[in-house]
Amino acid sequence: MSKHTIRIVGGDYRRTPIPVVAAAGLRPTPDRVRETLYNWLQHFWEHDFSDKRVLDLFAGSGALGFEAASRGAAHVQMVESNPEAAAALRALRNRLHTDRVRIHAGDARTVIERLGAAPFDLVLLDPPFGHDWLAWLWPRLPPLINPGGLLYVESEAKLEVPAPFELLRQGRAGQVYFHLLGFSGFAATQKTVNNQE
């Protein structure tokens, strides 16, 4: 299977091609879904990403994380276990000449244990399907997210959202469900929003 490319859909790096390596379980988030997600984020963050710290825990092609960097996020930490995919992430980061993106080649489990209590404003989760990642992740996510922070999750089914998270928005694209969750106190600082299908 040969490489193909997708493109960054918004921000300073808009239309920049992202190479997608042929790796098992790598499933780039479609353009329309990324555009929807970042419209949601712009709403909640009032179009200001400049002080936001983002963790993309299953980076894959890097599409989700590079969209955050493109919109001016202060720091984007990407984690990817596939060596070829991680190398492609570094190559794109270098081509963009940005020091706001860090690439960590390694397993998400190991990285979470090393991060400890890290103050991220947004955690992006697009794990390989069929491996029950979310069950393992739920209890380990709270120390990674600032109070009032956000969590984005892609999954093969609608989520049953555990406390202290709350569902803010959701949608579906083909067989993929995508969700934006608020963490611990998010609702206290935001107006109530309706879920979107």
From TrEMBL:
UniProt xrefs under PANTHER family: METHYLTRANSFERASE
UniProt keyword Transferase present: yes
Cross-referenced Gene3D superfamilies: Vaccinia Virus protein VP39
GO molecular function: methyltransferase activity
Pfam family, one: Cons_hypoth95
Keyword terms, alphabetized: Methyltransferase, Transferase
InterPro entries registered for this protein in UniProt: RNA_MeTrfase_RsmD (IPR004398), SAM-dependent_MTases_sf (IPR029063)
GO process terms (BP): rRNA methylation
Name of protein: 16S rRNA (Guanine(966)-N(2))-methyltransferase RsmD
